[in-house]
Design goal:
By secondary structure, this protein is α+β, with helices and mostly antiparallel strands. It is built from 5 helices and 16 strands. The strands form 4 sheets. Strands 1-8-7-3-4-5 form a 6-stranded mixed beta sheet, with no helix packed on it. Strands 11, 12, 14, 15 and 16 form a 5-stranded antiparallel beta sheet that branches. A 3-stranded antiparallel beta sheet has the order 9-10-13, with no helix packed on it.
């Protein structure tokens, strides 16, 4: 049992070592999916009497002997023995080997090479931002899967040979006006360039705002807005109070004017019209006719004022004496008929 476990461990360990070695294989050839590639093998003295054999990962993919092709197609190789690979896929990578044998079976020439497949790079996108605190402009060449890619930078059609990183920083002092930047990416099988970007950095206005944080500016603006709202509320309240006070003063003035007009008309409330109307109506008031003897007595005897009869006032006194309520006319004592 112990021997079995030991043997199993050795097998696993050897497989791990072989896998690690396979991962460290150096590729002499690189290509992208869908492309064509001619393997660089050349034997100038190649003839139909020679045996030509090509293998991929130790599998025969082309075999020709005495000018007759038994594996592959005659057009797959050139006159010097190079192998032409068409429409390569990920499964096409691996180890390729070419062997040329003499008619007697001895080796004339051999060649071995490892092919690695890679994806084509995509077109990058160039962006930039102005950093006024550090007085620099920062550029970034965005691309998917930047691992293993080579970057290049072009400023106004001049390649910056010392810049090979994905990001680039240029001082604002070098940006006099508008400058044109382009970035490029490349791998072993393809390369692409970004669109040209016109980089310009203008100082923000007003520059005093750079001394304050954005939160401070927002707080100041919010406080100013609140103060304006409070002032507007106070002004509206004062206007309403002033309008109400003016309305009350107008009502009070109207009442005072009305009372003054009533007080002026009150002494004249007893108008002479009442006396005039009373005097005109007095003769028309019917009275019983006195008897002849009464008329005689009244004619023969002068009228004397009685105690109950008040003395008659003059017309001026009657006009000045207030009489708001008219009194009924008192009749004189009637003399009995004789």
């Amino acid at each position: 049992m112990a021997c079995f476990l030991t043997t199993l461990g050795v097998i696993i360990l050897s497989g791990f070592i072989n896998l690690s070695a396979a991962n460290k294989v150096t590729c002499e050839l690189y290509t992208a999916v869908g492309q064509n590639l001619t393997l660089p093998f050349v034997y100038d003295r190649l003839a139909n009497s020679h045996v030509l054999r090509w293998t991929h990962n130790k599998t025969i993919i082309f075999y020709r002997q005495q000018g007759r092709v038994s594996v592959g197609k005659p057009g797959d190789v050139s006159a010097t023995g190079s192998l032409l690979l068409k429409n390569l896929q990920l499964s096409s990578e691996g180890a390729y080997q070419a062997n040329v044998l003499h008619p007697n079976g001895t080796l004339a020439k051999t060649w071995t090479g490892n092919l690695c497949m890679m994806d084509k790079v995509l077109k990058p996108q160039l962006t930039y931002s102005c950093d006024f605190k550090s007085s620099a402009v920062n550029l970034n060449c965005h691309v998917a899967n930047p691992q293993g890619l080579a970057f290049s930078w072009i400023l106004d059609e001049n390649t910056l040979t010392s810049e090979t990183k994905q990001k680039l920083s240029i001082s604002l002092a070098q940006l006099k006006g508008e400058r044109n930047f382009t970035c490029g990416v490349a791998n072993k099988v393809s390369q692409e360039k970004s669109n040209t970007v016109h980089v310009t950095c203008k100082s923000p206005s007003p520059p005093t705002l750079l001394c304050f944080a954005s939160k401070t500016i927002v707080a100041v603006l919010a406080g100013g807005t609140g103060l304006i709202l409070v002032l507007l509320t106070i002004i509206i309240t004062l206007c309403c109070c002033q309008r109400r006070t003016k309305s009350q003063m107008r009502l009070r003035d109207k009442r005072e004017l009305r009372m003054l007009s009533l007080s002026k008309r009150e002494p004249d409330s007893i108008s002479p019209e009442y006396e005039t109307m009373h005097a005109t109506e007095e003769p028309s008031t019917p009275s019983p006719e006195p008897s002849p003897s009464a008329c005689y007595d009244s004619a023969s005897q002068p009228e004397a004022p009685t105690e109950n009869t008040p003395p008659q006032l003059s017309n001026v006194a009657e006009e000045q004496r207030p009489s708001p309520v008219p009194k009924p006319r008192t009749k004189g004592p009637q003399t009995p008929n004789v």
